[in-house]
């Protein structure tokens, strides 16, 4: 893989625990024994430069709760962290950056209020904002549910891709919700579609990653990185091996 392709081991937190949801369903949760900070330190020891940290409680209800954890990860691991969940205001973005975030991930608000988020890109810089467009195929088109994937937004993926490409966005995280947490493989066709529609964006693939071959396939489809969740937690492959392959 070429230089610049990044891997983002993911830690999703709910009620203070490390968890994974199946297809974004809060009722289909798998809990893991390792506490979030312990897991972050393990990923750092394996050589990870980045961490993807998600506040699942805030993603549904608003009000990011992981600032103390974020500060400890920042000071104790040396990893760069992109994090989000429930980001609703400019003050939220400022608070996360001050707590040690390298990038703030904005999901639901990026769909509901794109003009607001475009303003944050201008104010904080494109390198500090990651827009998360979480997509589900509905009647032949890609739609963007919000509020922890529990509400329909009525907004299509192509509309938001065009908007944020024009707004100067650099970092886009796109998840196929129906693949998330399934270990069914990423939707490579989706990432090829995004690469063709918005070639200037650095896209992070997310959802369904099961092995190192999937990571390579996402890179070949035009992605600049991949988020690794359940496969790492379930021990499907070693993070150090994936990092070594990504660096080749």
Protein described:
The protein is of the alpha/beta class and 248 residues long. It has one domain: TIM Barrel. It has eleven helices and eleven strands. Helix 1 packs parallel to helix 3. The longest helix is centred in the N-terminal third of the chain and has 11 residues.
Task: Please count the helical segments.
Answer: 11
The helix/strand class is: alpha/beta
* CATH fold label: TIM Barrel
Q: CATH superfamily, called what? A: Aldolase class I
Q: Write the H/E string, N to C.
A: EEEHEHHEHEHHEEHEHEHEHH
Give the strand content.
Answer: 25-35%
Shape: globular
**The number of domains:** 1
Extract low-pLDDT stretches. none
Q: How far is the first residue's CA from the last residue's CA?
A: 5 Å
CATH class division: Alpha Beta
Q: Cα-atom Rg, whole angstroms?
A: 16 Å
The residue-averaged pLDDT reads 93
CATH architecture: Alpha-Beta Barrel
Strand line-up across the major sheet: 1-4-5-6-7-9-10-11
Largest sheet: 8 strands, parallel, barrel
Helix share of residues? 25-40%
Strand elements, count: 11
Organism: Marilutibacter alkalisoli
Pathway: Amino-acid biosynthesis; L-histidine biosynthesis; L-histidine from 5-phospho-alpha-D-ribose 1-diphosphate: step 4/9
Catalytic activity: 1-(5-phospho-beta-D-ribosyl)-5-[(5-phospho-beta-D-ribosylamino)methylideneamino]imidazole-4-carboxamide = 5-[(5-phospho-1-deoxy-D-ribulos-1-ylimino)methylamino]-1-(5-phospho-beta-D-ribosyl)imidazole-4-carboxamide
Pfam families: His_biosynth (PF00977)
